[in-house]
Design goal:
With 125 residues, the protein is mostly helical. The chain has one domain (2-123). Helix content is 79%, strand content 0%. Helix 2 (28-34) packs antiparallel against helix 5 (91-101). The radius of gyration is 15 Å and the shape is globular.
Length: 125
């Protein structure tokens, strides 16, 4: 449980701040998506994300029926994202999704709410 709380203390504020910063800066996501035009940046960030994802999954792979499974799912999503970023043929769909995500603030709102929930569970529950 100590690892779960630590990861919730990291993921919670991170997701909440990510969501809040994108909601309050409407043009920010479009600028970030433009960085994805460089496949070398995507590849290097993919390698780093795979390393982080492997570390997270190896440390927290707990499938239970309570709120801590959210942490496990986030760990696996980090790993999957890293693997996807390594392969150049996936970059087109990634850029397309990033551009469409900037038009759908509800997705960013989910990040914010999930961050608040994890922060609550990590610090106050």
């Amino acid at each position: 449980m100590d690892t779960t709380l630590l990861l919730a203390q990291i993921f919670g504020p991170l997701l909440a701040l990510l969501g809040l910063s994108i909601l309050t800066n409407p043009g920010l996501l479009e600028k970030v998506v433009k960085l994805h035009d460089d496949t070398a940046i995507l590849w290097v960030s993919g390698l780093m994300t795979v390393a982080l994802g492997l570390l997270l999954v190896l440390k927290h792979n707990i499938w239970v029926q309570n709120w801590t499974v959210i942490i496990t799912i986030l760990c696996w999503l980090v790993l999957v994202k890293g693997v996807v970023l390594i392969f150049p043929f996936t970059h087109g769909p990634i850029i397309k999704f990033g551009k469409s995500m900037s038009k759908h603030s509800w997705i960013v709102g989910i990040h914010f709410l999930l961050g608040l929930y994890l922060s609550y569970m990590a610090y106050f529950a």
